[in-house]
Amino acid sequence: MERQKKPEVVYHGSQYLFDVVKPMQAHGQCEAEAQTGIYAAATKEEVIPFAMPFRWYPDSPEGKLRFDSDGINSFLQYGSIDPNGKGYIYVLPSDTFELVDQWEWVSRVEVKPIEVIEVSVKDYWHTITFSEEAKEIQRKLYGAV
After folding, report:
1. Which helix (H) or strand (E) holds 117?
2. How many domains does the chain have?
């Protein structure tokens, strides 16, 4: 595998607004994706799915959420997303980040953003597809999909 050159900045997507981004326990599918840290990517586009405010259904502790992303497009298997919602992309200095797989960078210490970019679900709606079950949840909560 060819090693990626470290970019000057990396991007982190979240549905929450913070002054400082702090490491959290990730729940990925392999060791590289399940570390305690701040996960980021070299391009803004790769983190947009993580900035989208996908929600559990029901939106309570017993709710569940399942979505997949190819880094640009998202597939909502179970859960919901507010069509009028928003999320945030954090532009972070890369000095504390290390590459953990082909595209993910991780920092194990908190990082102060250089910039925070607000993104609207409306602008990325075309990148989201829904399972039949998720379509039903969307109709119940927000009307037509």
Report:
1. strand 115-120
2. 1
Residue 124's closest CA among 41, 49, 28, 62? 49
Q: Identify whether 97 is part of a domain.
A: yes
* Residue 129 falls inside a structural domain: yes
| Residue corresponding to tokens 């009028």 | 84
**Does residue 16 register a pLDDT over 80?**
yes
Domain span at residue 13 reads 9-142
Residue (of 7, 12, 16) closest to 47 by Cα position: 12
What b/e sequence results for 85-110 when a residue is b if at least 16 CB atoms lie within 10 Å of its CB, and e otherwise?
Answer: bbbbbbebebebbebbeeebbbbeee
Whole-structure pTM value? 0.87
Cβ contacts of residue 52 below 8 Å, gap of 6+? 13, 15, 74, 81, 85, 87, 119, 121, 124, 128
In a domain, 102, yes or no: yes
Residue 99 pLDDT class (50, 70, 90 cuts): very high
Distance CA 120, CA 23 (A): 25
What pLDDT does 1 receive?
44
Asked if residue 110 belongs to a domain, the reply is yes
